[in-house]
Amino acid sequence: MALIKLNFHSQSLARTTDLYVIKPDYLSPDKEVSLLYLLHGYTGDYTNWIRFSNIEKYVFGKNLIVVMPSAYNSYFTDLGTKEKHFTYVAVELPKFIESIFNLKVKRENTFVAGLSMGGYGALKIALTYPERYSKAASFSGALIIQNMITRVNLERKKHFEVVFGKTLKKEDDLFYLATEALNKVDLYISCGTEDAMFKDSAQFHQYLKEINFNHFYITKPGNHNWEFWDQEIKQAIEFFINE
């Protein structure tokens, strides 16, 4: 299994950017190749999952390629014309990965997952493009941006306004996106009961129930930390890959 660091010029970001890719040494011709885009949280970057989790151990022996990009503190949202982080991760990066590794991965084998900010990003990406992503997972996700704004300090509030504007647009609202993509994507949502995100996670789960959006919802003791996220990525891989 190879851990590959890539650096390339992104048109969406108008600059170069780094990412890690976990690629099996041998891709079995008897099994279809799967792709997982794995997203970091606020203040994180492309190195986090490698540094703080056992992701390499969990994907060993599977016909699965894992792609870990950086999106800085963008909430996987397009910021004007030169910082299109949503477009980069959701559209440009998959094209780049399939091109550089000479892959053609089916929609049913393309997944996205993330923690905290990345959990929000993962659901936003999959619900926006259900024709490209079949499954998505959120761990301790910042799922309700409107609630997040009321809980943070002034500096973070200013950052949210830079990212989302003064009014949350429908394309950034997971409630709207879930309604539009009803049951077109399989969702896995988890949050620890001691996590500050727990109430928001439960509220979003309740909304999905109300609109009859089939999904997996997992709660258990845990906090907003790598101990919880490491457990959850292991479980999510089983959710993604049925072997």
Q: What's the order of the H and E elements?
A: EEEHHEEEHEHEHHHEHEH
Number of helices: 9
For the record, the count of structural domains works out to: 1
Beta-strand fraction estimate? 15-25%
Reading side by side through the largest sheet, how are the strands ordered?
1-2-4-3-7-8-9-10
Structural class: alpha/beta
- Radius of gyration, Cα only, in angstroms? 17 Å
Largest sheet: 8 strands, mixed
- Tell me the name of the CATH class: Alpha Beta
- According to CATH, the homologous superfamily is Alpha/Beta hydrolase fold, catalytic domain
CATH topology: Rossmann fold
Spans where pLDDT lies below 50 across 5 or more residues: none
CATH architecture: 3-Layer(aba) Sandwich
Describe the fold and architecture:
37% of the residues lie in helices and 24% in strands. Helix 4 runs parallel beside helix 7. The strands form 2 sheets. The protein has an 8-stranded mixed beta sheet with strand order 1-2-4-3-7-8-9-10, with helices on both faces. By secondary structure, it is of the alpha/beta class. The mean pLDDT is 95. The protein has one domain: Alpha/Beta hydrolase fold, catalytic domain (Rossmann fold, 3-Layer(aba) Sandwich). It is globular and about 50 Å long.
